[in-house]
Amino acid sequence: MAPKRKSEDSADSKDKEKAPSKASKASKAAKVDPLKGLTKSSFLANATAFTLSGVDDTEIEVKPQKFKPGSLGWSATGKTTIKVDGHECPVGYTINFTVSKSADLPEGSDGSDDEEAVASEEEEAEEEAPKKKKKSSK
């Protein structure tokens, strides 16, 4: 006896399930960069500090910061104590909130997005790339 074949209708419905819908394709294409127009200098000039409530009503002030790799965000470090089973345990803390992809933002100087400066930096990087020679191993 020959094996049963799946009907073409069921195969078509599976293909439709696998293919992304037109609506999902359109929403991916319509995504807007939330950081467009933001520069590092405008972030640092306009981001505000905020306060977190810590353990035992400790208030932690989190301040805007530029991190060493060039990314931006907020940071707080400090020391406090946390009571555990009647014992005051001394602790240190570091809290970082990093803005995703902020290391790629242009530096800026007046808070505006200097697209010409970004374009010239990209051009310089492209010009430098061919100049670097590969070291040959002997």
Write a compact overview of the structure shown.
This protein has 138 residues and is of the alpha+beta class.
Describe the fold and architecture.
With 138 residues, the chain is an alpha+beta fold. 31% of the residues lie in helices and 27% in strands. It contains 4 helices and 4 strands; from the N terminus they run αααββββα. It has helices at 8-18, 22-29, 40-46, 115-131; strands spanning 50-53, 59-66, 72-84, 87-98. Strands 1-2-3-4 form a 4-stranded antiparallel sheet. The chain starts with 7 loop residues before the first helix and ends in a 7-residue tail after the last helix. The relative contact order is 0.13. Mean pLDDT is 75; it is low at 111-126 and 128-134.
Structural key phrases:
alpha+beta; single chain; 138 residues
* Silhouette: flat
pLDDT < 50 runs, ≥5 residues: 111-126, 128-134
How many strands, what sense, and barrel or not for the largest sheet?
4 strands, antiparallel
> Distance between the terminal alpha carbons, to the nearest Å?
69 Å
- Provide the spatial order of strands within the biggest beta sheet: 1-2-3-4
Rg result? 27 Å
Mean pLDDT: 75
Strand content: 25-35%
User: What is the H/E order?
Assistant: HHHEEEEH
Counting H and I runs of at least 4 residues, what is the number of helices? 4
Number of strands: 4
Q: Give the structural class.
A: alpha+beta
Helix content: 25-40%
